[in-house]
Amino acid sequence: MQFDLSSQPEIVQQAYGYALQGWELAMSWLLSPAAWSQFALLVLAWFLAGVIARRLQPALAQLIDPKEKENIFSTPRRFVLPYLALISPLLAYALTGIGEGIVRSLFDSGAVIAFGKRLFLFLAARALVRDIIKDSFLNLLGRYILLPIMAIYALGLLDVASTALTDTVVGVGNIRFSLMTLVRGLIAGSLLFWLGQWSNTQTTALITKNEEMRPSIRQLLIKTAEFSIFAIAFLLLMNIMGINLSALAVLGGAIGVGLGFGLQKIASNFISGVILLVEGQATVGDYVELDGGEQGKIVKMMARAAILETFDGRWIVVPNEDFITTRVVNYSDSGSANRYEAPFSVSYDTDINLVPPLIEAAVAKHPEVLDLPYPPDCELRGFGDNGIDFAVEFWVNGLDDGPNKYTSDVLFLIWNALKDAGIEIPYPQRVVEIKGGLPKVDA
Fold first, then answer.
1. How many angstroms separate the CA atoms of 139 and 124, rounded?
2. Considering the entire predicted model, what is its pTM?
3. Which of 294, 295, 275 lies closest to 219, judged by CA?
4. Which whole-number Å values give the CA distances from 315 to 216, 292, 299, 308, 309, in the listed order?
5. Angle at alpha carbon of residue 302, lines to 299 and 306, rounded to 5°
6. In this predicted model, what pLDDT tens digit does every residue of 128-147 receive, in sequence order?
7. What is the pLDDT of residues 140-189, one digit of tens each?
8. d(Cα 155, Cα 163) in Å, to the nearest integer?
9. DSSP 8-state assignment for residue 132
10. d(Cα 256, Cα 250) in Å, to the nearest integer?
């Protein structure tokens, strides 16, 4: 049965044509003395590169490795160390390039050696992805983008694939673009996204180290840098994909209309976040209580909302607008001290004139209780049903919850001081009156 190629789809015909060309090329190489000499040159180049690399790589590693020394060059030297694994394929590529000129002058042909050079580059890319790139995202790009491209390049089909992608045009509505534009945008967008994330991380770390700057200003600079980095990345991506930026004017108008209707809350929260960062009334690390009852420590301030962490580990997402339009109590603004009080009672048999100096001296022994702005102050609050009510006020730098138990510690001090002084802490007492007297009980 004869195979009718003309009745097959075009892609099958093209694949058959490439396969036929590859077969004819392979047969011509097998039967050509020039091809065999080039194969021998490739094997020799790979062997010499391996021998040189085995001797050169340990010596370079010994020279470059900073070991325990720390100086301005330590980080770059540690960065270069893993790339020594590329010495062998790159040396083979260089040696093959040297021999290519000789072969072409002798045989006026260098197709095999050109294929060998491309193959050595593919091996270098494979070593780069397998042994050197440790970042998970870059490693993913290397395995699924770089290696397939290098494999196509090694087979000499990169120009063919590029032409096919360029000629294939797809459209979405009135927008039409080639597959090459899509592939270029995918690769460039992935690299720009990773570079933007890395730049943002480095910038954040650099700004955070500057402790002389107010926390709110640091957060504002971090958000500004983040917005600027990704805005630049977006503009670069549009330029790489060949999209006219003037066409974004329509999109800008649509966004403006959306802000006027459905996105006004998002815009309000974004602007409120900027105001918070500029004014510094509440910033990361402050313990706040909102008018709606939400309270906790601000652990993160984002473009739309702030995250509060309660002392029981829960996170509360609060829109930035709530910090502007409602009453906010900041317990730790500018590191100011906080006042707390511990109530207690003593028996009516006590000489109450002895209680204030006794308790104030006991509470002042606590290492976290401050003398400024005021020392501990014991006050008489009233005459209760069961005893005389007192309360001691004290100031501390911190919050009486979570890791700190100031009120509990002070109550322990009060208890021990009263016990040592022989002062009784009353318990509830009631007088019960039975009308008519007790009932008579028969003997």
1. 14
2. 0.52
3. 275
4. 21, 15, 9, 5, 5
5. 50
6. 888 888 888 888 888 888 88
7. 888 888 888 888 888 877 888 888 878 777 766 556 777 787 888 888 88
8. 15
9. I
10. 10
